[in-house]
Amino acid sequence: MIYLTREHADAIRDHGRRTYPEECCGVLLGTNGSEVPRVSMLLPIENVHEEERRRRFLIDPRDYLAAEREARARGFVVLGIYHSHPDHPAQPSEHDRKHAWPNLHYVIVAVAQGEPGEMTSWVLSDDRAAMRPERLAIAEPVLT
To answer: Bridge partners of 87?
Structure first.
């Protein structure tokens, strides 16, 4: 399970809307303690895939490294990646599975005709054979 605030979920949906008909992508930063991983910050990243941006995304390794540094500087960790699926369901493709990393959460938002819809989250199985769905909790932040 992974926890997003409504603000984060709305920001991911908006990113998908703005980049449609191409895939958007970004990094999820937050905490991963003994409780449920909680997203504290999103880092939208430019999709640098040279071809097929309607069906693929690519994060430049330098952008990913910058995200890791930003996470450390803020006392967070990289929890995962988000991206959109223009005119396709919010389910990982075979390409997504092949390029997934263990221990990361993959949030996918479906964007149909420019309007964001279903949002899901997935993790790579230990044997790397499949992406497994996980519960995506979206709620208002708890004020302390």
So the answer is: none
User: By the 8 A CB rule, do 78 and 27 touch?
Assistant: yes
Distance CA 116, CA 92 (A): 16
CATH number of the domain to which 86 belongs? 3.40.140.10
Q: What is the DSSP string of 122-135?
A: EEE-TTSS-EEEE-
Confirm whether pTM is higher than 0.90: yes
Report the candidate in 64, 59, 56, 58 with the shortest Cα–Cα distance to residue 22.
Answer: 56
Identify whether 95 is part of a domain: yes
* Residue 126 is assigned to a structural domain of this protein: yes
- Condensed to tens digits (0 to 9), the pLDDT of residues 57-67 reads 999 999 999 99
CA-CA distance, 78 to 23, in Å (whole number)?
Answer: 20
Which of 6, 141, 59 lies closest to 14 in space, CA to CA?
6
